[in-house]
Amino acid sequence: GSRSSKTFKPKKNIPEGSHQYELLKHAEATLGSGNLRQAVMLPEGEDLNEWIAVNTVDFFNQINMLYGTITEFCTETSCSVMSAGPRYEYHWADGTNIKKPIKCSAPKYIDYLMTWVQDQLDDETLFPSKIGVPFPKNFMSVAKTILKRLFRVYAHIYHQHFDSVMRLQEEAHLNTSFKHFIFFVQEFNLIDRRELAPLQELIEKLGSKDR
After folding, report:
1. How far is CA 41 from the centre of its chain?
2. pLDDT tens digits, 141-183
3. Which pLDDT does position 177 carry in this prediction?
4. Helix (H, G, I), strand (E, B), or coil: what is residue 83?
5. pTM for this prediction
6. Is the distance from CB of 58 to CB of 176 less than 8 angstroms?
7. Integer CA distances (angstroms), 119 to 50, 71, 85, in order
8. Where does the chain bind Zn(2+) (predicted)?
């Protein structure tokens, strides 16, 4: 069924009082310092999987919100294919319900993508929220797939909707969010360089400002 274009996925909350909540607070505090390279580093003595889990949830929420601001401009008509500029087009497959990649409009693709990510995040066996519950062996590969797919939403927004983002005066918010995302995936080698190609110039520009 189609959801109203106004509401998007519900925010995924990290339970207050949990260790992951403390980590999220740590992430927010270091982000406030303005040094994003430092903000993405694994805090001393912390579990890498847990750090990646907390940040992945946070990026999902951020992208969800950013895309939510431009959904009225991203329609079946204006974006009949899911693309990131003329050279990159994405077809959807999740490996379970849709095994063979299908061509679909950007809003449909992003809906599939965000629903799929949300299902992964809600799966306690993949993203355990309780302390002491171990992460599964395939956690890292799932996290990488989630981040690779979330990147495509940024790429679509930048290539197809940046003018709308500017009209809404959201570009500083988008750039900060994307820069945080890129520094994070670079710090832990989470997305293959080839996958980042649609925004390579922007990534280099963001990185050079920070050296």
Report:
1. 18
2. 999 999 999 999 999 999 999 999 999 999 999 999 999 999 9
3. 93
4. strand
5. 0.89
6. no
7. 18, 21, 28
8. 74, 79, 156, 161
What CATH number was assigned to the domain covering residues 21-69+113-208? Answer: 1.20.140.30
**Separation of alpha carbons 74 and 117, rounded Å:** 20
Distances (CA, A) of 91 to 12, 102, 110, 131, 132: 26, 5, 11, 37, 38
Smallest CA-to-CA distance from 110 within 152, 145, 170 is with 152
Q: How far is CA 195 from the centre of its chain?
A: 14
Cβ count within 10 A of residue 146: 23
Whether the per-residue pLDDT at 27 is higher than 80: the answer is: no
The structure tokens listed for 92 are 């959807």
How far, in Å, CA of 126 to CA of 137, rounded? Answer: 9
Q: What is the mean pLDDT of residues 50-66?
A: 94
Label residue 151 exposed, middle or buried (CB < 10 Å: 0-12, 13-18, 19+).
buried
Q: Tell me how far apart the alpha carbons of residues 48 and 40 are, in angstroms, rounded to a whole number.
A: 11
Place of tokens 């994307």: 178
User: Would you report the helix, strand and coil content of the chain in percent, each value rounded to 5?
Assistant: 60, 5, 40
Burial state string for 158-171 with b = 16 or more CB within 10 A and e = fewer than 16? bbbbeeebeeeebe
- Give the pLDDT score at 209: 65
The helix (H) or strand (E) run that includes residue 89 is strand 89-90
| Residue set of the binding site | 74, 79, 156, 161
